Amino acid sequence: MTEWLGLPRLASAHGGQIDSLIGWTHIFMAILFVGWGSFFAYVLVRYRRSRHPVASYPGLTSHATSYVEGGVLVVEMILLFAFSIPLWAARVDHIPDPKEAVVVQVTGEQFAWNVHYPGPDGVFGRTDLKLLDLQSNPLGLDRSDPAGKDDVTTLNQLYLPVNKPVIVRLRSKDVIHSFGVPEFRVKQDAIPGLTIPIWFVPTVTTAEMRTRTGNAEFQYEIACAQLCGLGHARMRGFVTVQSADEFQKWMDEQVAAASAPDPFR
Ligand SMILES: [Cu+2]
Asked: Which residues contact 183 (CB under 8 A, 6 or more apart)?
């Protein structure tokens, strides 16, 4: 219904509501633009100097424009209270049960996205600043913590199963970044010192999206949506949406690799 907006292809369960809100806002703003624009042009001609050489000091006495302004106000309040606020409330109030969702921590830094899965135990391992090493351990994950042994970390690669709620716990190591995936219609700032949850349900696998777009190289991209420094433009992460089986297989491989004894330690 909202193709005319030219938005990126939709690939999340809640995105349709956001698109329809964007659509209605555009329709209403177009009506306002044409309405006020024509009124302005009419007034310029109607009250031109040759016809009205002397200004009218009492001015307008009719209340017609007040009614129009009242109407605009009512429609704006409907957009705000009937559409925007309930939509936003549903996003932030009804976070799915973590037991039924994929929970993943995504930590922005200049200029990359660190992805951290809790592993099969579902518990994120301890992190410690002292263990932080930009090359080998960018999150300072403590592998000696029992909860941390099976944790999986990646850089700029977020793997997700299709049709399952995902809770992304957003964090930042340095400045404000913003996690934006246009196809999922999600965008949220990552703020140092805070862990901010966002959630969505991806509905289209990367493979399916490649077929639909006819682009064999299509990738969901996490674009940093806050100017965060000189490398901001290259702060890109990628999301791979897979079937539940493919995702589980990928996760099992990662867990096995993470738990394998490290010969360099
Ligand atoms: Cu950034």
From this structure: 8, 9, 10, 11, 12, 15, 204, 209, 220
Ligand 1 center to residue 158 CA distance, Å? 16
| Full-model pTM | 0.84
- Residue 193 CA from chain centroid, whole number: 20
Highest mean pLDDT among 62-76, 119-133, 220-234: 220-234
Residue 7 has pLDDT above 70, yes or no: yes
For the chain, give the percent of residues with pLDDT over 70. Answer: 98
Task: Kindly give the distance from the C-alpha atom of residue 206 to the centroid of ligand 1, in angstroms, as a whole number.
Answer: 24
- Reported as a pLDDT band with limits 50, 70 and 90, residue 264 is low
Say which DSSP state 101 is in: S
Ligand 1 centroid to Cα of residue 109, in Å, is 7
Please give the distance, rounded to the nearest whole angstrom, from the Cα atom of residue 117 to the centre of ligand 1.
21
Distance CA 72, CA 32 (A): 8
- Cα 56 to Cα 47, 50, 78, 138, 252, distances in angstroms: 10, 14, 37, 71, 80
Residue with tokens 């704006």: 76
